[in-house]
Amino acid sequence: MRSRNLIFILPVLLAVSILGLLLFTLEGGFRGKGQGSSVGLTPLLWLVVFVVPLVLLVSQLGYTMVFPELTEKKLKEKPSSMPTIEKGESALEAILRVLSVDERKVVETLVAEGGTMLQKDIRWKTGFSRVKTHRILFRLANRGIVTAEKYYNTNKIALADWLTKEKKP
């Protein structure tokens, strides 16, 4: 997304800067020879029109060099984080293999309690802070591992249905 914006913004800033420099020189620079020109702006204003876009252009280029983003090609080459289920392994075991330590602790706590708990109880069982518990559950919910439902002043957290169902041979 950012690279698409740059493709549009950088040429516009460069064009405005060149236009400002051109008009600054046509106005006679700091000597002000072209006082009677039809444009009617002072040379100092044209200098500002030249300098400001140029500064923005250089700062944007510097920012993109310091903080490069992943290209779409790199994102497509990234292997899928979806775990493969090996023979004789449940979906839950496959998910537990790819979770971080904190996420695994939350999911194991949910499994031990039957698959459904209140968020505040998960916090007490795991020993995490409120914020850390919320962030972990948010990540798990975004990945479809748990579901959250409002329950008074807390949330009722449940493991996703596809994790609790076991395939029967």
Write a concise keyword list for the protein shown above.
single chain; 169 residues; mainly alpha; Arc Repressor Mutant, subunit A; 2 domains; three-stranded antiparallel β-sheet; 8 helices; 9% strand; elongated
3D architecture notes:
This protein is mostly helical and 169 residues long. It has two domains: 2-76; 91-164, Winged helix-like DNA-binding domain superfamily/Winged helix DNA-binding domain (Arc Repressor Mutant, subunit A). Helices cover 59% and strands 9% of the residues. It is built from eight helices and three strands. The chain has helices at 2-26, 43-66, 72-77, 91-98, 101-112, 119-126, 130-142, 161-164, and strands at residues 116-118, 146-151, 154-159. It has a three-stranded antiparallel sheet with strand order 1-3-2. The protein is elongated and about 80 Å long. The chain starts with a helix and ends in a 5-residue tail after the last helix.
- Count of β-strands: 3
State the separation between the terminal residues, measured CA to CA.
Answer: 47 Å
Could you say which structural class the secondary elements and strand pairing correspond to? mainly alpha
General shape:
elongated
- Integer-rounded radius of gyration: 29 Å
The amount of helix comes to: 55-70%
For the sheet with most strands, the description reads:
3 strands, antiparallel
Total number of distinct structural domains: 2
Number of helices: 8
Task: Give the neighbour order of strands across the main sheet.
Answer: 1-3-2
Low-confidence stretches: none
Instruction: Report mean pLDDT, rounded to a whole number.
Output: 77
Following the backbone from N to C, one meets helices and strands in this order, namely: HHHHHEHHEEH
Strand content: 5-15%
